[in-house]
Amino acid sequence: MSTLVGWVGGDAFKTIYFFVQNNPLQFKVCAIFQLSIDFAITAQRVYYGAATPATVLEEEDDLEQALALAEE
User: Fold this and answer.
1) 3-state DSSP call for residue 58?
2) Of the candidates 5, 32, 1, the residue with the CA atom closest to the CA atom of residue 17
3) Total structural domains in the chain?
4) Torsion of CA 21, 22, 25, 31, to 10 degrees
5) Per-residue pLDDT tens digits for 56-71
6) Which of 19, 35, 45, 72 has the largest count of CB atoms under 10 Å?
7) So what's the pLDDT on residue 56?
8) For residues 20 and 9, what is the distance between their CA atoms, to the nearest angstrom?
C-alpha cells in the first residue's frame, strides 16, 4: 500500500506542478491520465484487499487437487 501512496502522491504533485507552471496541454493531459490510473489501481487494492495466508493456502490446496485430477 505504501508504494501506491507514493505513486499517487508523486503523480499528484507532478500534476499540480504542471498546472501551476502553465505547462503545455499534453503534459497536463498525461499527468491527469497517470493520476487516474493510480486511483484505479488503488481502488482495486482497497476493494479486493490483500490475500490472507488462509486464502493462499486454500488456493494451493485447490491447485494440488486439480493437478491430481489432471494426472488421473
Assistant:
1) helix
2) 32
3) 1
4) 30
5) 566 677 778 888 888 8
6) 35
7) 57
8) 16
